Amino acid sequence: MKAQYPLLLFVSILLGCGDQGSEGADKSGGGEVVTRSVSRSSTALGKYIGGQRIYFSGGEKEKHYGWIQFNTDGTAVADGFQGVKLTYKVSELTVNISAGDNDSVVMAVEKPKIGKGDQLVINENGESSVVVVERIEAAKNKPSLAFMMEYTGAPLVEKEIPFVGRWIETDPEDPEYRSEIIWRVDHTYTVMFVSPVIGEDGEVIPGKFDRDLTHGIWRVSGNHVYFADLIAYGNERLPDDELQVTEAIVLKAGQDGYEFVQYNDGLKFKTLGKPKKVFEQPEMLEFNNGESLKKFDIQKALKLAKEPAPEE
User: Fold this and answer.
1) Do 178 and 261 touch, CB atoms closer than 8 A?
2) What pLDDT digit, counting tens, does each position of 234-258 carry?
3) 212 & 102 share domain
4) CB-based contact 77:13 (threshold 8 Å)
5) Phi, psi for residue 279 in degrees, rounded to 5
C-alpha cells in the first residue's frame, strides 16, 4: 500500500498533525513584494533545507509527529516512507514535495532559515494544516540491515561504550511498559519485553502480562542509535517483511543511564534506560554472568531459531 499510494499516506500524516483550516497562513506584509528579494529567499531556503531533516508535531486533541529529510540532490525521505522516491523543489518560500505523477504536497515556511518552534503550513488539494518544528538536524542515511549484520563484532566506537551493560527500560508516558535489556560489546542485544495484556473490552487485565524475548543487533552513529530485531517471540525468526532497522535520537548516554526518542508512523515515544546489576526476569537470568556482556552468537541463534509462523 505504501508503494502504491505513498504521498496520500504522507499527506494524511502531515494533515493529521496540524490544525486544519480552509486557508493558509496570512502572509500579508502590508508592502509590495520585491521580486529580487523573493528570489534571494528562494535561494536561501533551498540552500538551508538541502541536507537537513526536520521533525515536526501538530494537533490539539491528539498529537501527531513526523519528520521529512531533504537531501542535497533534490530527493526527500519521510518518516514511514523509506524506499519511496520523493522529490522536492523550492520556489520562493514554499517547498513542493512530489511522489511523481500529479501527487504533490506544498509546504510553506515563514522565513528562509527554519528554526525550532517555527510553523510550517502544509497545503494539499485546498486543505491546509499547521505543524510546528520540534527539531532540525543534519540529514542521515539509515544503515541497511545487511550493513548492520556485517557490523556485528566490529570494535566499539566511543559513543557506543556507554550503552554496553544491563539495563531496565521504561517509557515515562506508559507506566505499564518495562523491559530488561543487555547491550553487548559485539553489537548484539537481548531484551525481555513485559507488557500488560489487554482484554476484549480494551482494558488492561490486572496481573497478566505478555512476555517476548527478542534478540537483535545495534550500532550508534552520530547522535542516533540504530537497532534491528531478528529473533522474537522466544525463538522465532522474524519474517522478511518484519525485518527493519529502527532509529532513535540519543538525548543522553552515560554510566547513570541513557535516554532516546523515536519518531515512528505519526507517534513519538521516549525510552529511559537505568542500570540493572542483576536481571530478575527468568528468561534473562542466564545473561547475568560477565561473559554475556561480550558476545552472543547471533548467526548460530538464527540457524537454531524456528521458521516464522505462516500467516492465517
Assistant:
1) no
2) 899 999 989 999 999 999 999 999 9
3) no
4) no
5) -70, 150
The b/e string for 120-136 (b: 16+ C-beta within 10 A; e otherwise) is: bbbbbeeebbbbbbbeb
**Residue at 312 is within a domain:** no
Instruction: Give rounded-to-5 percent helix, strand, coil for the chain.
Output: 20, 45, 35
Number of structural domains the chain divides into: 2
**Global pTM value:** 0.82
- Residue 36 covered by a domain: yes
Q: How many CB atoms lie within 10 A of CB 231?
A: 20
Residue 8, beta-bridge partner list: none
Which range of residues forms the domain containing residue 54?
6-138
218 and 300 together in one domain: yes
Q: pLDDT (tens digit, 9 = 90+) per residue, 126-184?
A: 788 899 999 999 999 999 999 999 999 999 999 999 999 999 999 998 877 889 999 99
SS3 at position 141: coil
> Residue 1: inside a domain, yes or no?
no
